[in-house]
Amino acid sequence: MIATDWRLPDAPLRASAVTAQLLGIGAAIVAAQAARRISPLGEFYPLKVAVTFGAIVLLSFGFLQRYHPFARFGPGNQITMLRAVLVALVAGIIGEQAVPMLAAAAAGASGVATALDGVDGWVARRTHTASAFGARFDMETDALLILVLSILAWQFEKAGVWVIASGLLRYLFVAAGATSPWLARPLPPSRRRQAICVVQIVALTLAILPLVAAPVASSLAAVALATLAFSFFVDTMWLWRSRP
Fold first, then answer.
1. What digits encode the pLDDT tens for the residues 15-59?
2. What CA–CA distances, in Å, run from 174 to 11, 90, 154, 232?
3. SS3 assignment, position 113
4. Cα separation of 56 and 48, whole Å?
5. d(Cα 204, Cα 92) in Å, to the nearest integer?
6. How far is 218 from 167, CA to CA, in rounded Å?
7. What does the mean pLDDT of the chain come to?
8. Smallest Cα–Cα separation from 160: which of 208, 218, 212?
9. Where are the domains of the chain?
10. How far apart are CA 57 and CA 55, in angstroms?
11. Is pLDDT above 60 for 189?
């Protein structure tokens, strides 16, 4: 999927997707307001959550028509939308007070989002609505969660600024593909890639937990970053060997 593929979907897919997205942003705002009442979050937290979620759905919305050949948004994508709400709630904590309560809340929301990972794909296959859009929507949600968690690991002083490389690797790889077309070619499905993505999210989630000491958290993040870098190296070498 590239920027030139973006276009508004036709009805009734457009109506189905908009309904799901409005419900999602409503849920995100309600959850953010509720979180403010019970935790030391700033007054702009709900706005940050809404903007993050809005950016996710806006960027994804235009790829539905070409990569989701169904008339309905689908239950699998709705679950991914719920995961995107959780990611937006975690992302809103960036820039807030670095207190244990917020670290625990971020880890909890991340844990739920991770637990739902895979459920969306399973539901899509069971309902015969699996699509390239759904797979990419799920992958990009994971990538954003890794970036957010890596920033929080640094914000909560669990690791040095180097930890943010965990979240940037995916986007640097995509940016490199814009200048080197052989890097932008599709990769074959890989269990290794999926497993390392989960390891990355779990490691960073554990790292930000208040009970995990900084040296242990830093070691977890370092090992996870090393495995992620290895995975990108393997994919890069495969693309290089198979280039036209």
1. 999 999 999 999 999 999 999 999 999 999 999 999 999 999 888
2. 31, 24, 23, 11
3. helix
4. 12
5. 17
6. 15
7. 92
8. 218
9. 3-241
10. 6
11. yes
What the block records as the tokens of 21 is 């997205």
Q: Residue 96 corresponds to which tokens in the numbers above? A: 């807030």
Does position 94 have pLDDT exceeding 70, yes or no? yes
Better pLDDT: 9 or 87? 87
Res. 5 pLDDT band, cuts 50 70 90: low
Q: 3-state class of 131 per DSSP?
A: coil
CA 15 to chain centre: 24
Residue 3: band (very low, low, confident or very high) from pLDDT cuts 50, 70, 90? low
Residue 110: pLDDT over 60: yes
Long-range contacts from 220-227, C-beta under 8 angstroms, 24+ separation: 221/150, 221/153, 221/158, 221/159, 221/163, 221/166, 222/159, 224/166, 224/199, 224/200, 225/162, 225/163, 225/165, 225/166, 225/200, 227/196, 227/199, 227/200
Return the DSSP state at 12: T
Q: Exposed/middle/buried for 144, CB within 10 Å: 0-12, 13-18, 19+?
A: buried
CA-based radius of gyration for the chain: 18
Phi-psi region of 7 (alpha: psi -120 to 50; beta: other; left: phi over 0): beta
Tokens coding 69: 């050949």
- Between the alpha carbon of residue 97 and those of residues 54, 88, 141, the distances in Å are 24, 17, 25
105 vs 122: CA distance, rounded Å = 27
